[in-house]
Amino acid sequence: MKIILGSSSQFRKQMLQEMGYDFEVVSPDINEKLIRDVNPEKLVLSLALAKAKAITNNIKYPATIITADQVISFDGTIREKPKDEQDARSFLLSYGIKPSKVINGIVVTNTLNNKQVTAIDIVEFYLEPLTKEVIDELIKQKIIFQCAGALRLEDPLMKPFIKEIRGTPDSFMGLSKKLTESLLKEVA
């Protein structure tokens, strides 16, 4: 059965490739800004479910669909992708102040047997304060504008500032390999 990654995220695509799957990428046609919740776990799960529904409604063949969403939770606030440079700079400056969490919602749907499973994946991280030079370089690279909370811990520039990670490091890229494997088995 065909596997569909319901995401335009290059990072999730990379994770599935590393897992050895042959898959198709289909970007869900939803307006994420219309789906809101103050609870980060509920928000990412609602977004991942909406993406799954949009794709399921538009395909005409049996498939296993993987959808996900990610936010950063910092001091009780939800951070999505930065809107602009000021947003990104503000996010990056704050991470050395308090611990934060990467929160992923993952949904796997089997359209043949109509099974759907969901999961929340949370990773807590602690950073040393980033220097102005590192922040300037991260902004110049522009890739952080594709990342929830402007956070890309796998970037070599950020690695020296990581004090501690509690959870699965691949979850930073938006798709935990172990959890995704488990969900795929569950809907098979």
Q: What do you see in this structure?
A:
The chain is an alpha/beta fold and 188 residues long. It has a single domain (2-187), classed as Maf protein (Alpha-Beta Complex). Helix content is 31%, strand content 27%. The protein has five helices and seven strands. It has helices spanning 10-18, 40-58, 85-94, 132-141, 177-187, and strands spanning 2-5, 23-25, 63-74, 77-79, 100-110, 115-127, 162-166. Strands 1, 2, 3, 4, 5, 6 and 7 form a seven-stranded mixed β-sheet that branches. Helix 3 (85-94) packs across helix 4 (132-141). The model has no long low-confidence stretch (mean pLDDT 96).
Task: Briefly note the structural class of the backbone.
Answer: alpha/beta
Determine the strand fraction and express it as a percent band.
Answer: 25-35%
The coarse silhouette is elongated
- What's the number of helices? 5
Detail the topology: elements first, then pairings.
Layout: E1 2-5, H1 10-18, E2 23-25, H2 40-58, E3 63-74, E4 77-79, H3 85-94, E5 100-110, E6 115-127, H4 132-141, E7 162-166, H5 177-187
Parallel strand pairs: 1-2, 1-3
Antiparallel strand pairs: 3-4, 3-5, 5-6, 6-7
Helix pairs in contact: 3-4
